[in-house]
């Protein structure tokens, strides 16, 4: 498949309705691995980088493996194409930056990607909708086993899978849950919760990378520890924390509905109005409004908007996608204009499709 | 109210101290207060990079045997990538897998701060085709020696071992 296939739409796995999908948007599993007898990307030569790429191509593109991966070297992609892959979370910003040595394998449904020569030689990533920690891990682990039979991993009896950064050593596992927590944010409980989670060994970040903190009230919660605990223990702990947060968010939403029904109703519908009629939208404003509309849909204060359209908007309001939509490179001011146009189109479509049928059947 | 110390400027800071169980309140102006309590001012929280944290925790203070430490770490460079322990502390990253063996002694304290333990308890590594092939090659060589030394019983055992690995290898190829 050519690169265009991976740039046009939001990943299908983000569109599905997984468990607790009103609060948990996606589950992501990442496994960090390195090849034995090859220096880490931090200190390896271009020749070693090429060898790693070739070995992985042999292992992952073998016809009998039937993995159906498409392979792209970062050096062969344009800056915008790389940026789009980053915005879709299919590759990391780090991978896009190290374009001389880096490459990626992408599965057709975009649920699986294998990053090559990121900070480590291999980073297996599997993405699914909703809360599915175990299932997603199993898929990543299976691919890891198959790859592990083809290439020799750097592994130590004491330290487990060896990685460039000591924060990944051991299992090499990072599990991330992306959650939409508007009610907890509105009721100012998030700061306390973040502190609590940090103490439990979890990391909390914003969705659009570091520094974006809680833009759109979306938080990414992941495990910190990778050594001294088994994969199952790590996943179980994260699962427990996430379940508690889900319950807290549900309670907070209920309380908001009970105590401030009119204010909330006003707020979410104003947000919808802004998204439908604004002519200029900054990414901050768009993210905030999308969060409010999403909350309105979840609480049935807004009808006729499908959650998958909102998911798509969350992704498409990012600078790279706005430029792809416009078909040209844009400065910040023009991006805001095209962003408004895109969101309007997207939510307008929903009104037409769902308005007639009276149910949320619109699917992308 | 006038500052109790300089008795000139307007007192804007109240300092409460507890002495022998009694609470004493003093009133100072900004200027005098900052002299008495230089750390009262808000210290801006700066994001600390991970590698800095690691070196803050484990970096050896410069004033302490700086020279001998230097010697020790240069001797202790990783043979595969040339990383020294000091470089690891500075960057917070390893250059290659070999580093873990080179610095094995020094790592547990570093890892126990970052991690839940210093021993991997998760999934163990799969044996790769490459490694199996290597193993066969090793045994084959030993078999050759055994034959030359007319230890035929040993050689026969080795032949069987190779056969079973080869079998695994073939099965793995189909199975995968």
From TrEMBL, chain A:
UniProt-listed Gene3D superfamilies: Glutamine synthetase/guanido kinase, catalytic domain
All copies of domain Phosphagen kinase C-terminal, residue ranges: 23-252
Binding site for ATP: 26-30, 89, 123, 174-178, 205-210
EC number: 2.7.14.1
Organism superkingdom: Bacteria
Keywords: Allosteric enzyme, ATP-binding, Kinase, Nucleotide-binding, Transferase
Ways its activity is controlled: Appears to be allosterically activated by the binding of pArg-containing polypeptides to the pArg-binding pocket localized in the C-terminal domain of McsB.
GO molecular function: protein arginine kinase activity
Catalytic activity field: L-arginyl-[protein] + ATP = N(omega)-phospho-L-arginyl-[protein] + ADP + H(+)
Similarity annotation: Belongs to the ATP:guanido phosphotransferase family.
Function: Catalyzes the specific phosphorylation of arginine residues in a large number of proteins. Is part of the bacterial stress response system. Protein arginine phosphorylation has a physiologically important role and is involved in the regulation of many critical cellular processes, such as protein homeostasis, motility, competence, and stringent and stress responses, by regulating gene expression and protein activity.
Protein name: Protein-arginine kinase
Lineage: Bacteria, Bacillati, Bacillota, Bacilli, Bacillales
TrEMBL record, chain B:
Span of the signal peptide: none
Pfam family, one: UVR
InterPro entries associated with the record: UVR_dom, UVR_dom_sf, YacH
Superkingdom to which the source organism belongs: Bacteria
Ranges where the UVR domain occurs: 133-168
PANTHER family: PROTEIN-ARGININE KINASE ACTIVATOR PROTEIN
Protein name: UvrB/UvrC motif-containing protein
